[in-house]
């Protein structure tokens, strides 16, 4: 019988598992060597969305005359934004610690090393060592940015997303290497704040894992907004620039003539972009102690720890949840895995792999769940597809947010197998698709539902009614 559980890592997967493990009657020890909340709270989801929201508001105010509002002086105070971001992170961290204390989770600060499938040693912050015994050990150690083997990769002007979030002032210009989710979110945010942004992406489309109709439209919109995008381009090196670089000026009038050159191959030609900084965003890999992994024999594929359908590793009694297993590098997926694993270990619950939505906070936002059109065709699944434009919505018109569309894929049985939304508040609207897909609802059942008018949610109703041939 499992009772004592040791969880290593205090990010979304780890602290959610700790809370639910305690609620399910387990004796839980949670070990964290950095900050509670992990990457998501400290260097990912929360700080980025805080700055994205403020950048979007600044951009909206700069274009407020389109809605009959005139303001000749709009000033961006980045230092104040950073202070607000820090307070939000601090408040949320205090909230998590309060929950852990309430549930009587044994929270330990220190670096954990797994000795075997029952024992974990921890080097505490004061230098001393403690050992903990458990019936099960859970690895929830998160992920980190990948650093590819490219000439000049050690240049001090190459930053990670964490580095960008901790900058004291905005750069004049930046080249983002990698047009995936993180890269494009930063591209939108920094562009809104007045930074000159270029994106270099290896694949033929930005956001290559989502439905191409969405990624192609977003690329066009980003280019219209002034973001320089190069797809199908391979970065081959970075070079330092100093006095040869054209002088750039900050908003406060100070000047800079130091930067970095990004060299890449585009359409079989060598080209380059000069900028003050580079943001490297080419993927992530799991975080683990290599010596521990090898000594114990936990299987991995060099990027992520491999797990079975119950999140158990190749070593009995050791489990891996969240980013470290690579199943989904999303905080909400990590929360779910933490809850599921504790239900499985302490309540004998079956583990159900639910549909996981993807939310991308670009401008406009993207919400996506299920199969893309390309995936459905690759799997030889027959489907019908429709699009509904945001411009058809009275609420969208009132909001001056008519850019975007809803697209779905419907199976022969009349059920949604893919839903993709580009537009304002799409990261909220996508949850209609989750309920429909998890509930196995048919188009006819969805058509029987009444949505309030005028709302953006009504767009979903209009969309399902476009399938009148079922």
From TrEMBL:
One of its GO terms (biological process) is 2-oxoglutarate metabolic process. NAD(+) binds at residues 178-185, 201, 283. It catalyses: N(6)-[(R)-dihydrolipoyl]-L-lysyl-[protein] + NAD(+) = N(6)-[(R)-lipoyl]-L-lysyl-[protein] + NADH + H(+). PANTHER family: DIHYDROLIPOYL DEHYDROGENASE, DISULFIDE OXIDOREDUCTASE. It is an enzyme of class 1 (oxidoreductase). Belongs to the class-I pyridine nucleotide-disulfide oxidoreductase family. This is Dihydrolipoyl dehydrogenase. GO terms for cellular component: cytoplasm. SUPFAM superfamilies: FAD/NAD(P)-binding domain, FAD/NAD-linked reductases, dimerisation (C-terminal) domain. Binds 1 FAD per subunit. It is found in: Cytoplasm. The active site is a redox-active disulfide bond. Its EC number is 1.8.1.4. Keywords: Cytoplasm, Disulfide bond, FAD, Flavoprotein, NAD, Nucleotide-binding, Oxidoreductase, Redox-active center. Pfam families: Pyr_redox_2, Pyr_redox_dim. The keyword Lyase does not apply. InterPro entries: Class-I_Pyr_Nuc-Dis_Oxidored, FAD/NAD-bd_sf, FAD/NAD-binding_dom, FAD/NAD-linked_Rdtase_dimer_sf, Lipoamide_DH, Pyr_nuc-diS_OxRdtase, Pyr_nucl-diS_OxRdtase_dimer, Pyr_OxRdtase_I_AS. Its cofactor is FAD. Residues 356-461 form the Pyridine nucleotide-disulphide oxidoreductase dimerisation domain. It comes from Petrocella atlantisensis. It comes from the Bacteria.
């Amino acid at each position: 019988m499992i009772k004592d559980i040791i969880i290593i890592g205090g990010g979304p997967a780890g602290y959610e598992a700790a809370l639910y493990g305690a609620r399910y009657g387990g004796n839980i020890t949670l070990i964290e060597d950095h900050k509670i909340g992990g990457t998501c709270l400290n260097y990912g989801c929360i700080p980025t969305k805080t700055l994205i929201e403020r950048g979007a508001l600044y951009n909206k105010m700069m274009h407020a005359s389109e809605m009959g509002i005139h303001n000749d002086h709009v000033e961006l105070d980045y230092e104040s934004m950073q202070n607000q971001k820090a307070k939000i992170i601090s408040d949320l961290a205090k909230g998590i610690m309060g929950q852990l204390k309430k549930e009587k989770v044994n929270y330990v600060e220190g670096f954990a090393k797994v000795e075997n499938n029952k024992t974990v040693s921890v080097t505490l912050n004061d230098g001393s060592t403690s050992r903990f015994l458990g019936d099960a050990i859970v690895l929830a150690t998160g992920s980190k940015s990948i650093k590819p083997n490219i000439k000049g990769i050690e240049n001090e002007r190459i930053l990670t997303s964490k580095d960008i979030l901790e900058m004291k002032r905005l750069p004049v210009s930046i080249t983002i290497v990698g047009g995936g989710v993180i890269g494009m979110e930063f591209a939108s945010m920094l562009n809104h704040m007045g930074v000159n942004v270029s994106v270099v992406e290896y694949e033929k489309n930005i956001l290559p894992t989502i439905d191409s109709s969405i990624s192609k439209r977003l690329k066009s919109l980003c280019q219209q907004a002034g973001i320089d995008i190069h797809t199908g381009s391979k970065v081959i090196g970075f070079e330092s620039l100093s006095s040869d670089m054209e002088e750039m000026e900050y908003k406060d009038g100070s000047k800079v003539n130091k930067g970095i050159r990004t060299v890449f191959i585009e359409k079989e030609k060598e080209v380059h972009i000069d900028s003050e900084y580079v943001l490297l965003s080419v993927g992530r890999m799991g975080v683990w102690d290599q010596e521990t992994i090898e000594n114990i024999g936990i299987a991995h594929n060099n990027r992520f720890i491999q797990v079975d359908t119950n999140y158990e590793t190749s070593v009995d009694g050791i489990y891996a949840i969240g980013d470290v297993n690579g199943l989904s590098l999303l905080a909400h997926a990590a929360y779910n895995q933490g809850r599921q694993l504790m239900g499985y270990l302490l309540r004998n619950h079956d583990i159900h792999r639910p549909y996981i939505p993807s939310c991308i906070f670009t401008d406009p936002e993207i919400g996506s769940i299920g199969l893309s059109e390309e995936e459905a065709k690759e799997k030889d699944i027959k489907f019908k597809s429709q699009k509904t434009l945001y411009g058809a919505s009275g609420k969208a018109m009132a909001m001056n947010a008519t850019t975007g569309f809803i697209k779905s894929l419907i199976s022969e049985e009349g059920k949604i197998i893919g839903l993709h939304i580009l537009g304002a508040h799409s990261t909220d609207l996508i949850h209609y698709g989750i309920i429909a897909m998890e509930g196995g609802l048919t188009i006819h059942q969805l058509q029987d539902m009444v949505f309030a008018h005028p709302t953006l949610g009504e767009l979903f109703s209009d969309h399902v009614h476009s399938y009148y041939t079922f």
